[in-house]
Amino acid sequence: DGGITQSPKYLFRKEGQNVTLSCEQNLNHDAMYWYRQDPGQGLRLIYYSQIVNDFQKGDIAEGYSVSREKKESFPLTVTSAQKNPTAFYLCASTGQHSGNTIYFGEGSWLTVV
Amino acid sequence: KQEVTQIPAALSVPEGENLVLNCSFTDSAIYNLQWFRQDPGKGLTSLLLIQSSQREQTSGRLNASLDKSSGRSTLYIAASQPGDSATYLCAVMGGSARQLTFGSGTQLTVLP
What we know:
In chain A, strands 2, 4, 5, 6, 9, 10 and 11 form a seven-stranded mixed β-sheet that branches. In chain A, about 0% of the residues lie in helices and about 50% in strands. With about 110 residues, chain A is an all-beta fold. Chain A starts with a strand and ends with a strand. In chain B, the strands form two sheets. In chain B, strands 2, 4, 5, 9, 10 and 11 form a six-stranded mixed β-sheet that branches. In chain B, strands 1-3-8-7-6 form a five-stranded antiparallel β-sheet, with no helix packed on it. Chain B is globular. At the A-B interface, β4, β5, β9 and β10 of A face β4, β5, β9 and β10 of B.
């Protein structure tokens, strides 16, 4: 079944640690995105990638890093430099062959302990 | 910079009512507009996508309209049901990178 898979669903991070959230898609989409959602708020764009080996900062990229070594994969690392990382993280992808419909994963909850 | 606003932020209606959710955006140079549903603690489910050249889309009890020139979209839900209770988000796609900009959502509660 085609879709986007995010893992882990829940993650706890100690202060000062880096953590990596996984995002994999088998939809053959060129573009992938990472969003952050805080309670009661809309989604804010962290990073996006239009093609393999290329990515761009979104509105709130500070404290985050990404890579796009494969078309299917777009992992997000939340670094210790991110001052307030506790949030819900959503990965998405889209492609022109799908009419630019954007598909989302189920999300990952990150909590700093 | 594109800004998307959704009104109201929250809405509570009795079962069976028809209702309208509003979305406005500041930059009319968009590829499309999408409406999503989000249940608590879950990802987003796409409900309707309207291409920039279209005026409306329908799916079951849902109808979404787009007026690009005025920067407005509405989501009409007919004969609401308790299962419709969720947060509804609209997003516009624009720019060379085809970025999505989201509104803050409308939290809908349908009372049985």
